[in-house]
Amino acid sequence: MTRSQYDLHLDKNPANFQALTPLSFLERTASIHPDRVAIVHGRMWRTYHEFYARARRLASALSKIGIKPGDTVSAMLANTPEMLEAHFGVPMTGAVLHTINTRLDAAIIAFQLDHAESKVLFTDREFAPVMAEALKLAKVKPIIIDVDDLEFPQSGSLLGTQEYEAFIDGGDPSFAWRWPADEWEAIALGYTSGTTGNPKGVVTHHRGAHLMCYANTLSAGLGRAPVYLWTLPMFHCNGWCFPWTITALGGTHVCLRWVRAKAMYEAIDQHKVTHLCGAPIVMSTFLNAPAAEKLAIAHKVEFITAGAPPPAAVLGQMAAAGFNVTHVYGLTETYGPSVVNEWQGAWDALPAGEQAQLKSRQGVRYPALGDLRVMNPETMEDVPADGVTLGEVMFRGNIVMKGYLKNQAATEESFAGGWFHSGDLGVRYPDGYIQLKDRSKDIIISGGENISSIELEDVLYQHPAVSAAAVVAKADEKWGETPCAFLELKPGMTVTKEEIIAWCKEHLAGYKVPRVIVFDEIPKTSTGKIQKFRLREMAKRV
Amino acid sequence: MTRSQYDLHLDKNPANFQALTPLSFLERTASIHPDRVAIVHGRMWRTYHEFYARARRLASALSKIGIKPGDTVSAMLANTPEMLEAHFGVPMTGAVLHTINTRLDAAIIAFQLDHAESKVLFTDREFAPVMAEALKLAKVKPIIIDVDDLEFPQSGSLLGTQEYEAFIDGGDPSFAWRWPADEWEAIALGYTSGTTGNPKGVVTHHRGAHLMCYANTLSAGLGRAPVYLWTLPMFHCNGWCFPWTITALGGTHVCLRWVRAKAMYEAIDQHKVTHLCGAPIVMSTFLNAPAAEKLAIAHKVEFITAGAPPPAAVLGQMAAAGFNVTHVYGLTETYGPSVVNEWQGAWDALPAGEQAQLKSRQGVRYPALGDLRVMNPETMEDVPADGVTLGEVMFRGNIVMKGYLKNQAATEESFAGGWFHSGDLGVRYPDGYIQLKDRSKDIIISGGENISSIELEDVLYQHPAVSAAAVVAKADEKWGETPCAFLELKPGMTVTKEEIIAWCKEHLAGYKVPRVIVFDEIPKTSTGKIQKFRLREMAKRV
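Predict the joint structure of the above. Result:
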């Protein structure tokens, strides 16, 4: 491109260019609303002045023990104030925050600590047993700082030599924290669940985390000073960037150690919670609470959910209980939600069933996402927007990860052709909304025909005796693969394999009907995800 | 800095990095809400599908006549749909949109066209007389496209050979528009009013305009799908970036050629306007409308104002009329508002007078602004936050301009020391809020003491006979400078110089009392700004 008059003497300088970072949000809010309540945890609360001072103490204390830009600081914490502080204090040193799923087993934790080359570990007494085991297995020897949470009254050992409060006491509350030299610098590291092989370490950056704060604001309609209940684990994609988002808006973080109905209803009632996020299990916890624990909610509460699409009955019950549910979808690789079921005003007039069907679709791209496509991964061409043709869901934009840590092959594979390949299969409807149909590795190819395991599972779930269903491919000499269904039955119910096959024949095209039915317990990960790779092993043996 | 594991094989690629631009917002909204009403203009309305298609037609038509990246396209337009389209269609070619204040005289317009090296000019029949004259004076010969607005029924000549509708008819509605190669690329050019010497051309970029959309959203509490009334001229700092902001949110733009009470009340009532911006004159227009033109506003309307701080009486009347007023401050160099009087909940309990006093302060930095200081420009040190000590207001961050076009000296001067020097003098209060006191060139230094001309004017305005007041420095052998006051009186009122001086002595420290009083008409610019440089000339002669 030839240079024009607009390229001359109009360069970046400290007055007109700054690296984007979500850390600036805490500094701004603390300076404008120092006395506003930033964090509530049980009976404890802190202002933004205190929140900022404590985050700076943490950064200062980490610097004093030698933490420097590019180091990894790990955290195995519940949704406590210390975890919020870590989201600011750790990157304020230039280090990268590695959050650990608290439900993992010792071997995987040890793998993560070693792979991340962790220098410091924050851990909570609740997780001391598994963490002690993990530390024995790990090669790295991080400095261990124990969080001794007041809201965890049970015993449980302290693993390190220093407690969090004592540690940050040694830090300077007016520490001159490090602004990232480049907005592309890493801010966080989170491992994918690794249902197949070793977990991959997703690296995100300051630019993306900053933009996600704005995107969350628009997408969730956060408005000024929201009150946010921490029902979504912060270890999960950095709580979808809400530690930074709520802070940007000067909102109140209401911490919560456990997703329990009584505590959630009380928090909503007492603090007038306006927003919360969570998997469908959080909705069930609300709805299935004993009557004595349920409190009437007088104000409208926004509930943002991801995972399985919310069924019509649940949506109806949630609305009756005072919640407006928004359905989102994303991956660790996209900072959490990057697709939102943006509601169209015209849909308000539709019957509840149709509304639920529309809401079950994953939707359209998030505000900060550049592009969202459903493509044939071979040709990289869009599938027709017919609601039927399967393709792989692909992402592009500033809220896509930097890549996988120390895994160049996986990074390159995931970015092949200039798009992030989600591994999720879906369709696009004529109105542009997408709907997931399957994980690409979960698709069953039988006689050259693609069979969606989700479609089969949907039919199986509708059988009155079935409580859980999972379908995987089983190698077959004639067909290549055939569907193999694993079923758990409701208590006291019985059904024969023949009855299940008859049910499927009634509801599915013949080639999709499972050839093999297995009644057995279905293996799940610590986070409740069905482990299809184990089922595939089991399928080989039946 | 040593490289860490986070710097290896984790580079930018088309999947995870895109230049920020506000243009992407139109594409996204049009794809998600194609049938939503984007623009209303009189009885005409258009959907987002149409808005996007027309913007692309415009970009395509411009490309066809040879417009390329780095070219300047000028627009002298009212707040019509074509002006909104220009905010997208022009930068979609990589060209820079130069907006012209429609109240300027021919000589200044000619200067701007020449200085900007304008290649294409969009002009409206209303401005044909002055534009015809300007084109005679200008050396450049831009291609002229006439906008023949349906809402401007009066006659008025067409200056070019082509009308806007015919021009874009030749464009392709699915034109593959040009994404900026770099988010630092120029998007717009706007000239400062130039009360002293030639106007300076402020160049802004795609990155800043993109971030301003988020900042406006947070700051004005825009929420989902706002309905925005165009009372602020779009030629003024690109309408504070609201053409892009409202589009990002899928809101409705309600166009308006003239700030007239009847049309404004009707638009608010008919379209359920939620937000509008404007100078204090817009508020007076609402409040001073004949009773027959006033309509009761049943819903809450957010009014964002800049310029003179809103007085208590006006705030009270605005509240009674259904408006919530937010006070902002900024400059063309900061994309419009970059300081906001962010309201503190605790202030709600204060008496109206105190609330008005608090609201009269300019406030705190905008969400996307990195830093805002009041500094001694000699030492570049912060003034004490005492509400008294004067300093220069300085800005830093991503919503500060690239610089002044073809004016390296002015650019370097304005960015001296790594801060943008606003030229405005103000104080900082203990709570961090800033308040403007004067333009630095308007300060009067008498006997070594700084005298704020604004403070004197405030006192003079309070005199019952005074309708307008302006104070400038007059050279004085003994004192260096002394204050010289120019006054306009209310119809039918009289007052003597002695009475004015007595009034000032009663309300001001002795050294601040004006030595010279002049009763005369006060010269103003086309936009109503008092021309102090002319008053300084007049002061020499009295």
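The mean pLDDT of chain B is 92.
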